[in-house]
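Intended use. Records like the one below are meant for learning the mapping from a protein sequence to its folded structure. Do not use them to infer anything beyond what is encoded.
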Amino acid sequence: DSMEPLLILCYGNTLYTDNEYDAPTGDAQVAAFKNYCTFVATKYKGIVKNYEVWNEYNYVEFNTHQEGSGVYIQMLKAANEAVKSVDPEAKIVGVCAGGADENNGIDFMARVFNYGGLPYMDAVSFHPYQWNRQSDMNQLTADLQKVKNLLNQHNSNIPIWITELGWSTGTSEHCISEQDAAISAAQMYPTAIAAGCDKIIWYNLQNT
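Structure written out for the chain above:
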């Protein structure tokens, strides 16, 4: 179960929008996105059981026009209906927030929950990166607690997934040494699991 693949349903379609990172808005675009989700679920039925909706929607890099949580919930609902019409046992992973600070990922997650997104997801995901330094396990525990607190406010016990977390090695300003990255990885997995995280995906296997 821990090795089941996760497939991300993203991004936009330039037949309908100007940019591949334009979120689908309006009936035609949402219908097209739903058709895409149906196609993907049909193609990978029996292989993929986990589908995450979009990636870091709260960042302008992946949501060009900074559409709000209402548009995201439309996508989430469309993906849920499409995938489960093909494979009722599949899991929909929602939010996929970049970051865990109050002015970014956690705020976006709260809006998705507050405006009715929870019924359309089987797990909630986020990316609590810690740039430029060896891992801070206290911060990781605190980030997971923020998510648990939000779920508790909505009487939800869906699993929490970290679908991206890693420490890049190299010479750029965002990188640390291989030794520190290895230490961070060894500390991160047991800490996150102990703090209530159900699944963790390391990003990435090889530096790009």
